[in-house]
Amino acid sequence: xxxxxxxxxxxxxxxxxxxxxxxxxxxxxxxxxxxxxxxxxxxxxxxxxxxxxxxxxxxxxxxxxxxxxxxxxxxxxxxxxxxxxxxxxxxxxxxxxxxxxxxxxxxxxxxxxxxxxxxxxxxxxxxxxxxxxxxxxxxxxxxxxxxxxxxxxxxxxxxxxxxxxxxxxxxxxxxxxxxxxxxxxxxxxxxxxxxxxxxxxxxxxxxxxxxxxxxxxxxxxxxxxxxxxxxxxxxxxxxxxxxxxxxxxxxxxxxxxxxxxxxxxxxxxxxxxxxxxxxxxxxxxxxxxxxxxxxxxxxxxxxxxxxxxxxxxxxxxxxxxxxxxxxxxxxxxxxxxxxxxxxxxxxxxxxxxxxxxxxxxxxxxxxxxxxxxxxxxxxxxxxxxxxxxxxxxxxxxxxxxxxxxxxxxxxxxxxxxxxxxxxxxxxxxxxxxxxxx
Length: 437
What we know:
Elements: H1 20-36, E1 41-42, E2 48-50, H2 51-58, H3 63-68, E3 70-73, E4 79-82, H4 87-96, E5 106-115, E6 127-136, H5 141-158, E7 163-169, H6 176-188, H7 194-202, H8 205-208, H9 213-218, H10 231-246, E8 252-253, E9 265-273, E10 281-287, H11 291-294, E11 302-308, H12 309-319, E12 331-335, H13 341-353, E13 358-360, H14 367-377, E14 381-385, H15 387-392, E15 394-399, E16 405-409, H16 413-425
Parallel strand pairs: 1-5, 7-8, 12-13, 12-14
Antiparallel strand pairs: 2-4, 3-4, 5-6, 6-11, 7-9, 9-10, 10-11, 14-15, 15-16
Helix pairs in contact: 1-5, 1-12, 5-10
């Protein structure tokens, strides 16, 4: 007797199985459509990057670079890293291909898998999926507000009602020296462990991002960066908030919000959900005006965000939101016997070309086996066809929930299926790309 199969997905990763995969695709599509409507074009970068892209771009003092990157040396001697985030990679691509020398801002969005060697826990995995957007080459606060509003609209479209926007301004190189000095002086008086003190020496702002209660308790009276903003940065932040107010976006001031990456300047924001426990963020971002220069490029102001697909799925589950249309199949065709298999195949092809998700029973199954397959498919509709149906030029359209079955002329089956699906889901435009009704 053969041994039982023992291979498993690596620790900290997971498989998304049907029907959950359909919901995940719908979340990703909603995010993509939301940002594409704002004029952002799609970019795809390699899952591997030169390690220097993240060390120089994200920052050596960050947990991402110091503890969490999957880095290795290739057979050719190249030092590469599985991307832990998307912004630095997108900026590298913009600079390498001189996109910044064309019309500005360069507005791009991406979608893909990212990797961080973290301690696995609910809502935090070593492999995760994100959709991100970046606007590069302009410091107009309208872009900050545009991206924030677009993300909030995405969450609303998906049916989420408990996503909260946290907002802060981090200033820039003009504000940072005085603030860093005040913050470092304050941190010197705290009872911090040795690793935290070392982190504070490299970048004291990183201590503000420490989630441990024993650290946060000591930060109650910490100096705030908003008290050190220049007039220009304060005006920029005021404009962002004014624009958000005008488009109906609400937020909560979060003066200790610094995000987890060193490249952020000026506007910083995070989208959180109260149903996810300690790992409450479903997305976030901000302005990163110094990233281009840190990678060896020119000074290019930029702003962007990343939305967690997996985290958003957890938020939907926490609110009990069921995504309408998140199903694998619309129709399952049941040919009763091999003699009608060809006609069934033609019908399935016609339905698919019209935008209907359709499948059929195979392997010459009998009526009982074919109907079992239809039940397992979870399709709301079935089309049953036997020799007599084909001879009469009709098929049987069955509602799988009620069991009701109606004879429909073969030439009218497409319109009958579309009407039945519209009644189930509400009117949705479906345009045939081949075949005929």
